[in-house]
Amino acid sequence: MVSVSEILDLRGNPCPGNLPKILLTLEGLDEGDILEIILDDIIALDRIPEAIREEPDYKMLEPTINGHNIHLFIKVY
User: Fold this and answer.
1) How do 6-9 and 34-39 pair as beta strands?
2) Do 49 and 60 form a contact (C-beta atoms < 8 A)?
3) Residues 73, 2: contact at Cβ < 8 Å?
4) Whole-angstrom Cα distance, residue 47 to residue 11?
5) How many CB atoms lie within 10 A of CB 45?
6) Can you give the pTM of this predicted structure?
7) 26-41 burial by CB neighbour count: b if 16+ within 10 A, else e?
8) Which of 47, 29, 53 is nearest to 70 (CA)?
9) What would the pLDDT profile of 26-44 be if each residue is shown by its tens digit?
10) Three-state SS for 23?
11) Which helix (H) or strand (E) holds 21?
C-alpha cells in the first residue's frame, strides 16, 4: 500500500485537460510526496503516464483500476 500525501479527484474531467491540473498540484508538493489521481477516463491511462515519464522530477508508480475508477500514483523527486 502506497502512503499518499494528497488525492486529486478528476473523475468526470476528460483528457487532455487533466494534465495541467496534475502538474499544478505536483508543483505544490514536496520531495518524497505521493499524489494519487482518481480518473474515469480510460484515455488518461495512456496519456498521463507517458507525459509524466518526460518530467524528471516525478515518477509514475504502478496504477490500479477499481471498477470504473483509475488510480494513478506519482512520486515527487
Assistant:
1) parallel
2) yes
3) yes
4) 15
5) 15
6) 0.92
7) beebeeebbbbbebeb
8) 47
9) 999 999 999 999 999 988 8
10) helix
11) helix 18-27
If you search the block for the grid coordinates 512520486, which residue do you land on?
A: 75
Check: CB of residue 48 under 8 Å from CB of residue 22: yes
The amino acid present at 59, given as its one-letter code, is K
What's the topology of domain 6-76? Translation Initiation Factor IF3 (3.30.110)
Alpha carbons within 13 angstroms on the beta-carbon side of residue 76 total: 19
Residue 22's pLDDT band (cuts 50, 70, 90) = very high
* Helix or strand holding residue 18 (H, E): helix 18-27
Secondary structure (DSSP) of 28-51:
TSPTT-EEEEEE--TTHHHHHHHH
Residue-range domain boundaries for the chain: 6-76
